[in-house]
Design a protein that fits this description.
The protein has a domain at about 5-70 and about 105-180 and about 270-355: 3-Layer(bba) Sandwich (FAD/NAD(P)-binding domain). About 35% of the residues lie in helices and about 30% in strands. It has helices spanning about 10-20, 35-40, 55-60, 110-120, 165-170, 230-235, 240-250, 300-320, 325-355, 360-375, 375-385, and strands spanning about 5-10, 30, 50, 75, 80-85, 90-95, 105, 125-130, 135-140, 140-145, 150-160, 175-190, 200-205, 210-215, 220-225, 255-275, 275-280, 280-285, 290. Strands 1, 2, 8, 9, 10, 11, 17 and 18 form an eight-stranded mixed sheet that branches. The protein has an eight-stranded mixed sheet with strand order 6-5-13-14-15-12-16-19, with helices on both faces. Strand 1, helix 1 and strand 2 form a beta-alpha-beta unit. The chain starts with a strand and ends in a 10-residue tail after the last helix. Bound molecules: flavin-adenine dinucleotide. Flavin-adenine dinucleotide binds near residues 8, 108, 293 and 296.
């Protein structure tokens, strides 16, 4: 075999997985279609990623958290959910006795840059950049990866980290639940008149949502999800009209708004693979579960999943068992899938309930917010999800 493990995709999940294996003694390759220069200096893509304490801990253990730079990490102290024009809100904040914020906001650009910088300074894996994977097959003897230039690489285990639209997952015959929400997210950094006090806002109305992700005290990232047919209208608006539109949608909660930088947009698609492994093959990151961004869990799940898989592989190596064995891969799925399923389907339920503007749904969500506000165990559970440094332990169902 050319390699013990071949990872397809040097996105944040694939690179994190390589870093998790760096002391394993395994010979690892990571294959990426982009050139190394783009990985080293990724472009800003509009995404500000909300990270949990577990993600912070995992990135810190890899050494990539330390490379973010303090000025690029924005604490999230509280979060409020609002329904329509009502001022009633479901509010969470970090408990008074906690040692830190609810979570952190870091741009995807900085996450990618920091993880790649750590990877490049390590000897975690051989990077084959500018290399497109054309086809993958596996059998009992190993995995065989055909590249664009016609050469074939072999590895004892193949890992796909090649986006939620993973071609490899498809070639390996792994079915997935696919959800085209028919909506797009428009993202834009804005300055505002009133401070946000590091509080995220999630406002549900007009059959869409508007989120405020707090960055510096007078700067935030605004994320608007609308029906995909309406997104071009928002993209084409003049800057002045867009500023007024956002201020008005926010009910002037942050005063006047001013766009800084470009507007970005993403069609929203959710994917959940029905299996996270096959013969000598496993999925990590968005290739396993690609989430709707409203609950901000996609990369958090990806980080947690790759850590669980790497731990099982390292455990097998220590016990001198084959690390590619189905039992090892099944143990990964058993730990990761229950949590991923709950988050994926839970998020879809929230999206459905909170973007339906018919009267019964409006009444139901008002009730949900009021009941949730008076249910301390529920609020504690959500806080725990954000602030726990442990992998969630749910039963397989
Ligand atoms: C608008 C938006 C907001 C988000 N907000 C949050 C948030 O607040 N919190 C959160 O946790 N997550 C969030 N996410 C999700 C997060 O951005 C993703 O989960 C994460 O970036 C996925 O990382 P990945 O490495 O799995 O995949 P990717 O970043 O997609 O990387 C995959 C890599 O594989 C490479 N590749 C693909 N095919 C091939 C091939 N054939 N050959 C070689 N290389 C290949 C690609 O070039 C790419 O580099 C958000 C997503 C969106 C769209």
């Amino acid at each position: 075999m050319d390699y013990d493990i071949a990872i397809i995709g040097a996105g944040p999940a694939g690179l994190s997985f390589a870093l998790s294996l760096r002391d394993s003694g395994l010979k690892v390759a990571i294959i990426e279609k982009q050139p190394a220069e783009s990985l080293q200096a990724p472009a800003y893509d509009g995404r500000e990623i909300a990270l949990t304490h577990l993600s912070q801990k995992l990135m810190h253990a890899h050494g990539s958290w330390q490379r973010l730079g303090d000025g690029n990490i924005h604490p999230l102290m509280a979060a409020s959910v609002l329904n329509g024009r009502s001022d009633y809100r479901l509010h969470f904040d970090a408990p008074a006795n906690s040692k830190g914020p609810l979570g952190y906001l870091v741009s995807n650009q900085n996450i990618r840059r920091a993880i790649f910088a750590e990877f490049a300074s390590s000897e975690a894996a051989t990077l084959l950049d500018n290399t497109n994977v054309q086809h993958v097959r596996t059998d009992a003897s190993g995995g065989y990866i055909t590249l664009d230039n016609g050469t074939t690489l072999s590895a004892s285990l193949v890992i796909a980290a090649d986006t939620r639209f993973s071609a490899t997952r498809n070639q390996m015959g792994i079915a997935s639940d696919y959800n085209d929400y028919g909506r797009s997210a428009l993202l834009c950094v804005m300055e505002h008149e009133q401070p946000h006090h590091h509080t995220a806002l999630e406002c549900f109305f007009y059959g869409g949502t508007l989120a405020v992700l707090p960055l510096d005290e007078y700067r935030c990232s605004v994320v608007i999800t609308v029906n995909s047919a309406q997104v071009s209208e928002l993209l084409q608006m003049s800057e002045e009209a867009f500023n007024n539109e956002v201020a008005q949608r926010l009910g002037n909660r942050l005063g006047s708004m001013k766009q800084c930088g470009e507007r970005y947009h993403y069609p929203l698609v959710g994917v959940h693979a029905r299996k996270f492994y096959g013969e000598r093959f496993a999925l990590v990151g968005d290739a396993a579960v690609g989430m709707h961004p409203v609950t901000a869990h996609g990369f958090n799940l990806g980080l947690s999943g790759q850590d669980l898989l790497a731990s099982e592989i390292i455990k097998a190596c220590k016990n001198q068992r084959p690390f590619w064995d189905n039992q090892v891969l099944a143990a990964y799925q058993q730990q990761h899938m229950p949590n991923a399923r709950v988050l994926y389907h839970g998020t879809n339920t929230v999206v459905g309930l909170f973007t339906d503007d018919r009267l019964p749904a409006r009444l139901l969500r008002t009730a949900v917010l009021r009941i949730s506000n008076h249910l301390p165990p529920l609020k504690q559970a959500i806080r725990h999800k954000l602030m726990s440094e442990q992998h969630p332990r749910l039963r397989v169902f």
